[in-house]
Amino acid sequence: MISVDQIRPSQSVASEMSVVHEYAWPKPAQRLSSTFFKLVYRWSHSNAFRHNERLWHGVSIERDSRGFLKRMSIEGHDLLVENPDDLLASQTGDCHLIATGPSVNDIDYGALDLHNVMGVNGAIALQDKHPIRFEYYCIVDAGFVRKRPDLVARVVQQKLTLFVTPLVLWYIAQYFPLSQFRCRVYLIEDIQYPACKRALLKHELLSTHASTDLVLFDEEPTLGFSFNISRGIFDGRTVAYTGLQVLTSLGFNTIFMHGLDLLNAAQTPRFYETKETMQPSALDGDFNSFIEPSFRHAAPLLSRRGVRVVNLSAQSALGSDIIEKDDWHSLAHVSLEQE
């Protein structure tokens, strides 16, 4: 099992937070070389391979006998990739997924005793205010890496398990020395766009991945849910949906979703941003076609499989008819009762 020991001494968390989080913008020659090889790939490959344009030069990906991701190297540097079967379905009980909606600022994390915590994208910034230990982390948005390499540097230098796609890992390598990674890496991939392989057509998804671990909701657009991340994940156009698939695959029975606001995202800063520093968001445009129907289909499916999902965002665009809602204070009451 590769999950971090669930001990919570504040000194240990503070020690990780005090690490110098260094990163460097790619040099002009490096950017020019990357762009050149990307264009060469575009000219020589069809659109079905376009998602691999950053992965063909200097990148090696190895799969096991079942076709699951196993190893990855960049420019000859082997990454500390750990994709063991025994990690899946190895956990039970409660866990917490901390997204980056502004409602996170309404939660008094000092009143909570959280275990089994996953962060996504910029959730690591919560450590500026609270000594939250992240056992797991998930980043599937290459744009986030390009825009906030400072936050990504903080993630990779902590002792956690990072669930990440090969493409995102390639982008991280452009900013941060791979030899200085302190995190473990678990490779995941979009089920429709496998790394270094041709994209699957809609009708090929089920025939190629015939398994009870995968449920296809719709073919146009491609919506579904994966109970086995080794086989791939479905893109619900928000990293929180990917994180939900990861935590379910790990075996957790109850998943508390923090900061799952998804409301007026283009005009509303994330919990760690201001109006002046906020980055663009595509959530509003993707909500009706991808995000809402993904969660709406997944909720009853998870319930039937004994997984409870709780949304702690009172102002979330996902109504209680989709996901159960509760107030974060209920977690504080549980923490007090356990003392």
Give short descriptive properties of this protein:
transferase activity, 339 residues, transferase, 29% helix, Glycosyltransferase, alpha/beta, sialyltransferase cstii, chain A, disordered N terminus, eight-stranded parallel beta sheet
Notes on the protein architecture:
This protein is an alpha/beta fold and 339 residues long. The chain has one domain: sialyltransferase cstii, chain A (Alpha-Beta Complex), CATH 3.90.1480. The chain contains 9 helices and 13 strands. The chain has an 8-stranded parallel beta sheet. Strand 9 and strand 10 form a beta hairpin. The longest helix is centred in the C-terminal third of the chain and has 22 residues. The two termini are 28 Å apart. The N terminus is likely disordered. Keywords: Transferase. GO terms for molecular function: transferase activity. This is Glycosyltransferase.
The number of helical elements comes to: 9
Let me know the average pLDDT: 89
Give me the CATH architecture, please.
Alpha-Beta Complex
Total domain units: 1
Q: Write down how many β-strands occur, each being a DSSP E stretch of 2 or more residues.
A: 13
The structure class reads alpha/beta
**Most strands sheet:** 8 strands, parallel
Measured as a percent range, the helix fraction is 25-40%
Please trace the helix and strand order, writing H or E for each element. HHEEEEEEHHEHEHEEHEHEEH
* CATH classification, class level: Alpha Beta
| Strand order within the widest beta sheet | 8-7-6-5-4-11-12-13
CATH topology: sialyltransferase cstii, chain A
Distance from first to last alpha carbon = 28 Å
Radius of gyration: 19 Å
Poorly predicted runs: 1-11
Strand content: 15-25%
Q: What best-fitting shape do the alpha-carbon axes yield?
A: globular
